[in-house]
């Protein structure tokens, strides 16, 4: 049902960015060993490599703010959900924010969901 | 193979935006009746409703320019491919461009692919 996947998108993204902004090493629970992350063009696979990448990003503090989130079922039957987020993030003591876009493909597993696909891009002005 | 889905992403997005910018009514061939489009938050399903939405957008001419494209297999086995694009578009005689983000979920069918999921958002500055 449409309400279900939209509600899941809100619940998941709230949890994801709250966890990211509090202690991003805790994101381990959301990935699996076949999960993929494309981060600013770098292609990374597997829970430990993905979380290592996120933990090693060169800032101590980050705060995400979501502007839009869109959700759709990713197939007629699999139960997967595609979520696209646009938002902005603030790093450390910087006074300006950076805009970003991120896509998650959430796959059901045992009554919950994990992240199979994760694509992150900053939206630079050119 | 990684080269395959990256090559598909380039080939598909080149074709999609060239078609959009030339005659967007021709995008009919890329959608199916269970395909979904989220366009600036509006949720639309089915080939004819999707193409009607795209054709009715309030501009005569548009030119998309891709900045980044990222691709990942959307499952270990289905053959689907997720593509995220960031770029900018120019409408009619406007001298400024607008940045956008778009996600396509491409599903294999008879040696080619169609668009099952399509999510489009402009990236407004706030």
In short:
With about 130 residues, the first copy, chain A, is an alpha+beta fold.
Overview of the structural elements:
2 copies of one chain form a homodimer. Chain A is α+β, with helices and mostly antiparallel strands. Chain A has one domain: Nuclear Transport Factor 2, Chain: A (Roll). Chain A is built from 2 helices and 6 strands; from the N terminus they run αββαββββ. Chain A has a 6-stranded mixed beta sheet with strand order 2-1-6-5-4-3, covered by helices on one side. In chain A, strand 4 and strand 5 form a beta hairpin. The longest helix of chain A has 22 residues, at 2-23. The N and C termini of chain A lie far apart (40 Å). At the A-B interface, strand 1, strand 3, strand 4, strand 5 and strand 6 of A face strand 1, strand 3, strand 4, strand 5 and strand 6 of B.
Draw up the topology in text:
The structure is a homodimer of 126-residue chains.
Chain A: H1 2-23, E1 31-39, E2 42-45, H2 47-55, E3 62-73, E4 81-91, E5 98-109, E6 112-122
Parallel strand pairs in A: 1-6
Antiparallel strand pairs in A: 1-2, 3-4, 4-5, 5-6
Helix content range of chain A: 10-25%
Give the count of helical stretches of chain A. Answer: 2
The biggest sheet of chain A, with number of strands, parallel, antiparallel or mixed sense and barrel status, is: 6 strands, mixed
The pLDDT mean of chain A sits at 94
Shape annotation of chain A: globular
Class of chain A in CATH?
Alpha Beta
Query: Please, what is the oligomeric state?
Result: homodimer
Strand order, sheet with most strands of chain A: 2-1-6-5-4-3
Tally of structural domains of chain A: 1
* Cα-to-Cα separation, first versus last residue of chain A: 40 Å
Uncertain segments of chain A of ≥5 residues (pLDDT<50)?
Answer: none
CATH topology of chain A: Nuclear Transport Factor 2, Chain: A
Structural class of chain A: alpha+beta
- The total strand number of chain A stands at 6
Using the 3D structure, state the CATH architecture of chain A. Answer: Roll
What's the helix-strand series of chain A?
HEEHEEEE
- Report the radius of gyration of chain A as a whole number of Å: 14 Å
Measured by residues with Cβ under 8 Å of the partner chain's Cβ, the largest interface is: A-B, 34 and 34 residues
């Amino acid at each position: 049902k449409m309400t279900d996947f939209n509600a899941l998108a809100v619940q998941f993204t709230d949890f994801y960015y709250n966890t990211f902004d509090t202690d991003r090493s805790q994101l381990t629970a959301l990935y699996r060993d076949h999960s993929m992350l494309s981060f600013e063009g770098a292609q990374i696979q597997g829970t430990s490599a993905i979380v290592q990448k996120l933990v090693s990003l060169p800032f101590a503090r980050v705060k995400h703010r979501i502007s839009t989130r869109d959700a759709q079922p990713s197939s007629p039957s699999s139960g997967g959900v595609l979520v696209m987020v646009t938002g902005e993030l603030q790093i450390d003591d910087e006074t300006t924010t950076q805009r970003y876009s991120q896509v998650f493909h959430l796959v059901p597993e045992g009554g919950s969901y994990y992240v199979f696909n994760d694509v992150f891009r900053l939206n630079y002005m050119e």
